[in-house]
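Example 3.2
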Amino acid sequence: MNSKLHLAIILAVLIGGVAHADCGGASLREVTQAFEQAQAFERQGQQRAALDAYVRAQEYACEANPNEVTAAQRAAAIATPLAKNAEQQGDWRTAFDLYEAGGHYQAADGSYMALLRANPDNPQLFEQVRSHFESRALPAFAANNAVRLKVTGTYRVSPKHIADLLTVPARGVERALQKDASIFSEQYLREYVQLIESQPEPSTNMGAVQSAVEAHQAFARKWPEQTGEDAFRASRDALTALRRWAGVTRDADLSRSAERAFVERIEAHVALLTQRYSGAPKLLEAAMDYARMRTDEVQVAKIKSQAAKLGDQAGSKGRYQLAADFYSVADRSDQAQAMRDRQRQVAMQNMQPSIEAVRRQAEQLRGQFDPAAVKAMQAQAEAMRRSLQQPTR
């Protein structure tokens, strides 16, 4: 063979080999193996595994894929019953994935919209669904899925889905405002302050303590949504969603009005909590949480100063527990501990007559009772004394 011709053949092979290696797709061997695995899974009754393997068998390959059409047909057939079962269970995300894998794009769109309707207060999901439909509308979608579309039929984006999608941000804004209003109730605030102001100082008066416990339980039953460690979390979550809707909507007017409502609601909440319902430390703490949503550290500092002054007032009136709680909101831990210590001292003084009475009774009955009984009474008095000396945290 002519040496130049020989060299040309070698170069052609090398160039062709480089072209295949750089084509960006799977090799024919890889997609063929996936197809064979899919058939094996299907024979074994492993439908989901078979579907996944048939999808891999349809990947773009550097060479002609002789099994692509068959793989698309089998994927379409297997996906439908699996997706319908997921729909019956309300698992719309899985249903979407299954319909998508089978090339049933109309049905996949329907499942995605159902998922959004089931999670109407999720701006991030809304963005995902919107991006999904925008990708569907691109010419590249039809070109990249030509084989699947020949199997499952003509596809076009549903105008109704788009119309419904466009209303989602406005409805989300409305729900966020309604949710915030339902949680941030002035009646709740008024009754909560009354509850706190009516609480007695912890003492040996078990009747007063029991009455206070029952009052808290009744309040919790009346206001179940606000009861808990953080009564206003749901309100703040709603306002956070409100701001996110402002960020994801492409309606400029809606975005501006939602952002304005976010600021106005927070300012109104902080003003109300600090001006009319500051009698409860927990409500001042809530006011600071709202202020932090706007990164308003100046307002946070003002609220802490207000809490410290209210702590001074409560302490001067002998409301040591209330004072300690105010000081805690103000981040004045030393003063809070001092109030707790003072409360313990007062309680100890109040308890002293009872302790002495038990001791005297033990002495009087020393000769009449079993020594063990007398010793038990003495131990009771000592236990009462020690309990009052325990530091309060």
